[in-house]
Amino acid sequence: MAYVATRGGERAIEQSERLYRAELGQIDAGRVQELRKALPMLIDRVMGEASLYEPDLAALALAQSGGDLYEAVLLLRAWRTTQPRLGIAAPVMQDQLFTHRRISAAFKDIPGGQILGPSLDYAHRLLATDVLQGRPYSPAPVEPAPTPAPALQPSLAAWQKAQGLVADPARAEVAPDDIPDLTREPLLFPAKRAHTLQSLARADTGGMLALGYSAMRGYGNAHPTVNELRLAEAELRVRHPRGTEFSAGRVKVSQAEVTSKGRSGLLELGFCATLGWNEVKVISGATLDLNAPGASKGSPVEEEFFLYHTEPVEASGFCIHFKLPHYVTFQSSLDALRGAKATADKTPAPIQPEQVPA
Questions:
Q1: Residue 355 has what pLDDT?
Q2: pLDDT higher than 60, residue 151
Q3: Pairwise CA distance, residues 241 & 4, whole Å
Q4: How many whole angstroms separate alpha carbon 191 and alpha carbon 215?
Q5: How far apart are CA 96 and CA 325, in angstroms?
Q6: 162: left (phi > 0), else alpha (psi -120 to 50), else beta?
Q7: Name one GO biological process term (predicted).
Q8: Residue 190: is the preceding peptide bond cis (ω within 30°)?
Q9: Residue 7 pLDDT level (bands cut at 50, 70, 90)
């Protein structure tokens, strides 16, 4: 692949950017706050794929990009690289999450009970066209339950381990500074477990859905059942340089475990978690994680395949780079094509049998 430097046309390039930004109009703090308030799910998706939990900045990135998700993620990741790393938060266990929604499709009566939380799973998908006629849509108020569910819910996998239904691998303690960090290290294969989970957490939602869906339709090794799906808030506890541990606030998180009966006779689990609330992403990611062991080379559920091809910034960047000048490469192809055509024109046509002299 070859490129050629472009010269000239600076004014056209500048005006092209101005045309794009003119479509977006003025961006002010009010627009950013309106986006954050009106599009919480989209804000969550951008934060998850950018690996940065900052709703105001995510809303600003969406405002600047006009809603182009890949541009918004790129803006947020670029800003993230300029920030110092002040500390590493303490690990958060599942039973320490402030849970808003927790369901299981594998077990009806799970410890702690099923908590529907906010969901459109059972709603009719009807477009509120009255809004366009000047009649605002106002959602019905929520009626609080007589007995609120406990905010902290136990881990279903921990209960399954106690029942002998799933394997209980030994837990490896890792010092905070020794945790592999995908934002500072290249992704190599076989991937470290931390790199796999970090890649899934910041992967493109659409890409993960496409590959995860292929596994669900039979192009994988195992059919998933949602063992546990949880939307929650995780408290970030960090240590002050003087040694005091304190809460730095909460972040919204999603996590999913999917399960299938393994060859060992136990249930096998696939896992995925991400920043923000994004159920489709974590279910798809957990499905890919479940199917990865033993996957054939080049299949959609092979770890190297799906981790490389669901990286949103690299994938979108490679796609749009084809818009850049490829004059040298294409000219080379044209030269080869013209040369072959000229050679073919000089070659005498083969003599047909009826034209052979007697």
A1: 61
A2: yes
A3: 51
A4: 20
A5: 53
A6: alpha
A7: organic phosphonate metabolic process
A8: yes
A9: low
